[in-house]
Each structure stands twice: as structure tokens, then as C-alpha cells.
Amino acid sequence: MTLGTREGHEGTGPGAITPDGCAVEFYSRLPVRDEPDIIAAAVPAGAHILELGSGVGRVTHALLERGFTVTAVDESPEMLDRVRGARTICGPIEELDLGETFDVVMLASFLVHSGDVEVRRGLLRTCVRHVAAGGCVLIQREGEDYHTDLPRERVDPTGFTVRIVSAEPVGDGVNAVRAEYVFPDAVWTQTFRSRPLTREQFEDALGEAGLRVDRYLTEDRIWVRAVPEARPVRRSEKAR
Q1: What is the helix (H) or strand (E) element at residue 87, kind and residue range?
Q2: What would the pLDDT profile of 142-172 be if each residue is shown by its tens digit?
Q3: Quick one: which of 34, 39, 36 has its CA closest to 217?
Q4: Which residues contact residue 193 at a Cβ distance below 8 angstroms, ignoring those fewer than 6 apart?
Q5: CA-CA distance, 214 to 85, in Å (whole number)?
Q6: pTM for this one?
Q7: Whole-angstrom distance, CA of residue 63 vs CA of residue 42
Q8: What SS3 class is residue 6?
């Protein structure tokens, strides 16, 4: 079943498919990997996390088990229906304005690589808008050979295969990436638009939004801890 698609995005396979081509049932089957360990090592214990693009709650649930409070945001109601134990908010991330701030804002799932530059800018503005003073933003990037080490596949220990089949240029620095997810009883495919970002381009995009890299959390630089840039104090403020 297809719920409508975003331009350049398509998904096939059993069950609901979100506008960006994600299969709800596939993500419900996907096991949590090392993401909770990476996150927990980078933020204060018990932090309140705003998770942008939570999907079915694969990481959400693991964070809740570790004692974090999570507000999960996704534009797909079918995805959010699978989330348990967290406050959920349905809507476009780039337009989100909750009027509150959080210890940690998390933008995972390679969302920072949106093919639409204005969407990426909106995503990062949402991060800045919602991070508390002294808080941080955790961002998951694509691997630096994500678009070049192709085709490739990973066989998960639980018995399914993920294949990144191709990344074909479609103009303006954007690629159409095709992925296949093969289980013994079902196959899903997804085609989506992604903009490769070098480390310099990524850091420039953060800077444009008022963020800077605090540190890279993993050796492959896929997970990043960013913090708001210090705002210069105006003379009028110094005089108060």
C-alpha cells in the first residue's frame, strides 16, 4: 500500500509505505544496533531527548529503557502508531515549533542529507530552535563512501540482507539511491534522493544554521555531537 510519494522517492513491498519510500513493516523488523550506546555516551543520564524522525521507535524504545525521556517526531502516523512509552508528535520536521527546548535534539537516519537544500536548512533550524542552553544536537551522517562503495550488502545476524544497489546522479549534486531489504518471507525496496556532503560541506551547513561540531562520536565520523555557536554579546546587552 502506498500513502503518496515525495518526488524522487519510492518504496515497494508489503504494508504501508511512507511518502519518502520507507516501509513501516521493514523498520518494525529492523533491530537496534549500537545507536543507543553512542547516544548514551554523548549526553547526560536521564536527558530529555527530542528525536526528529523517530520512525517506528526502534531507537526510541532502547533510549526509554536506559532512563531517557523521549519526545518522538515523525511525519508518518503509521510509523508513530508503533511507538510505545514516548510522547509522539506527527508532522513535518522542518516546520516543527513546539515552543519548548530539550537537553538533546537528535537528527538521525541521514536526514541531514536531504536532496532539497531548503528542507535540510529547515531541519537544522528546527534543531537549533529546540535545543536548550547548554544542550547538544546529535546528527547521524552518511558514511563518507556511502555513494561510492557500490554495490554493497550487509547480512544481518538476525537473518536478513540490506543491499545498497546504486546511487545515480539526478542533477544539482543529488543522487537517487536504491536500496533492497531482503527477508526470508518478504522483500522491500526503496529509492530516495540524497545529497552527498563532504566533511567540509557538512560543517558549513551546520555553521549556516548556527551550529558547530563539538566532536565526532565515532571513528567513521557518522555520528556527530554539535552545539549552538556562541551568540556575540551586543554592547547594549553588556551595559545591562
Answers
A1: strand 87-90
A2: 999 999 999 999 999 999 999 999 999 999 9
A3: 39
A4: 7, 8, 9, 114, 115, 116, 170, 174, 175, 176, 177
A5: 30
A6: 0.93
A7: 13
A8: coil
For residue 211, what are the β-bridge partners? 228
Residues 6+ apart with CB under 8 A from 123: 52, 93, 94, 107, 111, 112, 114
Q: How far apart are CA 122 and CA 119, in angstroms?
A: 5
Give tens-digit pLDDT for 21-45. 999 999 999 999 999 999 999 999 9
The tens digit of pLDDT for each residue in 89-120 reads 999 999 999 999 999 999 999 999 999 999 99
Query: Which H or E run includes 59?
Result: helix 58-65
Q: What is the pLDDT of residues 175-223, one digit of tens each?
A: 999 999 999 999 999 999 999 999 999 999 999 999 999 999 999 999 9
Q: What is the dihedral of CA 132, 98, 83, 190, to 10 degrees?
A: -100
Computed on alpha carbons and rounded to an integer, the radius of gyration of the chain in Å comes to 18
Beta bridge partners of 102: 131
| Separation CA 142–CA 175 (nearest Å) | 13
- What residues contact residue 118 under an 8 Å CB cut-off, 6+ apart? none
Helix, strand, coil shares, percent, the chain, to 5: 25, 35, 40
The predicted structure's pLDDT at residue 5? 62
